[in-house]
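Moderator note: this is an archived Q&A kept for reference. The question asked for a predicted structure of one protein chain; the sequence and the answer are reproduced below.
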Amino acid sequence: MSRTTTRPSGDLRRWAATLTVCLGLFLLGIDMTMLNVAVPDLQADLQPSMAQIQWIVDGYALVLGGTVLTAGALTDRIGRRRAFVIGLALCAGASLLGALARTPEQVIAARGGMGAGAALLMPATLSTIHNLFPEPQLRRRAIAVWTAVLGAGGLTGPVIGGWLVEHFSWRAGFWINLPIIAITVVLAVLVVPESRGSGKPVDVPGALTSAAGLLSLVWAFIEAPTRGWTGTPVLAAFGAAGLLLMAFTARQATARHPMLPLSLLRRPSVMVGAAVLALMSFSLFGALFITTLYLQGVLGYTPWQAGLRTLALPAGLVIGAMGSLPLAARWGNRFPIVAGLIVATAAFTFLATTTANSAYGHLVVFQTVAGVGAGLSAAAATETVMGATPGDRAGLGSAINDATRQIGSALGVAVQGSLLVTIHSHRMADRLAGTDVPASLAQTVIHQGQGLTTIATAPTLPDSLREQLLAAARESFVAGLTGTALLAGAVTLLAAVAATLLLSSQTCQALPTAAPHAPPRGRGAALEAVPLPQMDAK
């Protein structure tokens, strides 16, 4: 299929199209985290286990991350606007299923279906922007807006979800998608131009092995606290994940039309940019999940109050994303990438100083600083990856951005959530040993693995038992939060060191066209040799 592109005339039309795809992106972002604050309401209604809660929270990002590379290739083939609209339609159908769900398994299935729709929608947004703005300066601005909208959506999800839960129920988090999707579809048909890329066949074996490998990996992390980290099912899942992901890599090295050309990943700007996005998402969204539980389970806020108290994070992210523009224009993308990661590391280190007596103001400082750091690094890393991707493979470049973000987010919730449960359970066992709390109640709280059930159970107990139980739960949860914060800070620090060593100012510059160079040898040479197309704005 030949590459076809239609661009709207005039900057006003281009920005109208950009804002339309960003509306779909904002919906995707809020869906990712909206149910974080609905956990107590879900527990009361459907009685899910802690593992099922993690699947409800994680299933969306897991399916999105596992299928978005395939969806990115399909987007280039069938058309980006068409993929955007189809993705919205899938999200609408899955949202209806979630709103009518009667079991935890149905909610998990709905979240997975929404992730599949988002996998089509998400790469279409960034590749459309890449097509609309061939000029490097304008494209950098548009990508900064894209980054800010995605982050603001994901990080304001708890605010919107909290209001809906408090005034209606957790089901409203699914119902609200339907009118937003209808409006976005109409706008997309009216103002978003259709464009296509190279139209290469989709690598079905690669898609299956990558999705199965990621599913096995996240399943192992989520189930490990209850089944045991050395339990046979968990070790088998880790082993299967390793084998499947190695098979995927081997497939990409030999396939005629690889889903993820390894020649593209060998470019330092793409490899490091993608890694930065994954590691920052791992740290940030894992921390968002845990601090939302902290606000309700330890500080005792309602879902709406807890959601409002996460707003400092998206505010900081928007500031950071916009602030990356002048820094990148003057010193190249490496500077805001590294600076943002260092700022984020400082924020996670500060979060690790939280105690059972810390007030909400302590969390505000963390949220603001972490948001600024994430915005600085994510906007520049996104532009770094897209600037190195050939124009006719913009869907692939967008999919790499999206896959790394979502895989990082899914693993962040899974790994940090599991670490929280493990630390919390061990600390609760130590704290409740020798107290007057009945053994049966102590075991229930310990196996639940987080403080929300403790808060719900405590009012039914005598005063002396209530105080003992609440004190143990708060101290144990904060111990878990400290451990996860230290892990998140170590991850962002590692990313900062890697970016400093592996990126140069030259490899991070966004150029109007790819610099001419001798084509590489071996498979993938054709892609590596393709320059960014020179296109005039109309």
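Archived answer notes: The radius of gyration is 23 Å.
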